[in-house]
Amino acid sequence: MESQTIVEALFLGLLEGLTEFIPVSSTGHLLLAGHFLGFESNGKTFEVLIQLGAILAILTVYFSRLLKIARDLPSDPKTRRFVTGILVAFLPAVVIGILAHDVIKTVLFESPMLICVMLIIGGLILLWVDRLNLKPRYTSVMDYPLSLCLKIGLIQCFAMIPGTSRSGATIVGALLLGTDKRSAAEFSFFLAMPTMAGAFAYDLFKNRHILTFNDASLIGVGFVAAFISGVFVVRYLLDYVSRHGFGLFAWWRLVVGTLGLVALILMR
């Protein structure tokens, strides 16, 4: 295994953790970076499987909160409704993810031009939503009704198009449906746990026959890097969003998408 490849895996892992929970599309960034670096993984598994590091980052930061939810689940109706809401929001991604898995991995993941366009479109939508004078009806994830959770889950499915952003889709959808910025971002964190874990397990199962020891080593490096950078983002994102909104992330998407398009056109 070449040291350059290890360095690339380390870089991509850090990139995954830094971008997974902010509305800029971690998958889009990974696929674009891999394209320009010439980094290739069997079946595009690296880009999906290193998300386990980001999942563990949430579990680490939210451990006490998750423990409290587990303790309250048998006796507290509000907690049961919250957990049910997360599962309801997760369900559309299960159905569409299984049905469209091959198209996503073999067509959409191989379209860097599409990724750049979606980054730009998403950035414009974020700027628009961030400047709306929205009046939130829900300020706590524990108060989200099941109907709202289902709608957010349906909107999350747009993120199967790389460059859209899972967190971006869920946050924007939640805001337009009547939530405040902090609880929208927090609900996106909680919904990420089953969504990313499900994608990890299903992709690992689908590609178990083509993975090699070299793949496992690279995935391990990326996983550790994603965990470390993911912990940093999860710890500080909610406070940042509450104070400053999503404008910075919108402009970041516009810059990356535009530079990516220019580079792709020049490389033709």
UniProtKB/TrEMBL annotation:
Residue spans crossing the bilayer: 48-70, 82-100, 112-129, 141-161, 187-205, 217-238, 250-267
Claim: Lipid biosynthesis is one of the keywords in the record: no
Enzyme class: hydrolase
Primary location group: membrane
Alphabetized UniProt keyword annotations: Antibiotic resistance, Cell membrane, Cell shape, Cell wall biogenesis/degradation, Hydrolase, Membrane, Peptidoglycan synthesis, Transmembrane, Transmembrane helix
Catalytic activity, reaction form: di-trans,octa-cis-undecaprenyl diphosphate + H2O = di-trans,octa-cis-undecaprenyl phosphate + phosphate + H(+)
Bilayer topology term: Multi-pass membrane protein
InterPro entries per UniProt: UppP
EC number, UniProt record: 3.6.1.27
Pfam families per UniProt: BacA (PF02673)
Localization of this protein: Cell membrane
GO MF terms held by the record: undecaprenyl-diphosphatase activity
Biological process, per Gene Ontology: cell wall organization; peptidoglycan biosynthetic process; regulation of cell shape; response to antibiotic
GO cellular component: plasma membrane
PANTHER family reported for this sequence: UNDECAPRENYL-DIPHOSPHATASE (PTHR30622)
Role noted for this protein: Catalyzes the dephosphorylation of undecaprenyl diphosphate (UPP). Confers resistance to bacitracin.
Family: Belongs to the UppP family.
The protein's name: Undecaprenyl-diphosphatase
Record organism: Phyllobacterium zundukense
Gene designation: uppP
